[in-house]
Amino acid sequence: MAAPLPDAGEFETWLNERLDSLEVDREVYGAYILGILQEEESDEEKEDALRGILSAFLEEDAMEDVCKQIIQQWADYSSRSAAMKNADAEVQAIASLIEKQAQIVVKQKEVSEESKKRKEALLAQYANITDEEDEAEEEEPAGGIDITANERSLFKNTNVEEVLHRQKQKRDQAREDAQKKKEMDKMQREKDKLAKQDRKEKEKKRTQKNERRR
């Protein structure tokens, strides 16, 4: 048996008005006809049951037209109800999907907020350290002149370049001093060698002179 529809208000209103036009007691037969339409599966079964009810009030020709009209109205109503149910189901599905996506967005936002707070805390900590270093390195400009952040950055870059330049000068000077020392040591060794040879020559000549005297 077909499952009963939850609300047949629209169709029931039309059925009651149709029964009134046929001078059939709506209070007695309206709910009965509605029950048949909800319970019977096929249109043939519905029509046979309706004939059994309306045969007491209508002629054969009129009864057939009324039965078909009632069945057609019920079919139209059932189709609209099914479409509305499908639409409601789609709306519910979309609403559920939107809700899930919203929950995901909220969770992602919460994670992003936590990550943002951690980053801000780290940046604040780093900024405090940097400020302390800047205060130690920078001096108050004379005359109360305000120095902008860009100018301070320029001064810092200039100071770095000067430090690097001085370090390079020191390395170059050390290399030059080492080369000079190396040359001086070489010259000293040559002098010592020549002096040593000169002493040997003098000693040799003195020895030969002494031997000739003997």
Automatic annotation (TrEMBL):
Residues 130-141 have a biased composition (Acidic residues). Pfam families: PWI_CCDC43. Residues 129-214 are annotated as: Disordered. Keywords: Coiled coil. InterPro entries: CCDC43, PWI_CCDC43. Residues 8-79 form the CCDC43 PWI-like domain. Residues 162-201 have a biased composition (Basic and acidic residues). Residues 202-214 have a biased composition (Basic residues). Belongs to the CCDC43 family. This is Coiled-coil domain-containing protein 43. It comes from Oryzias melastigma (Marine medaka).
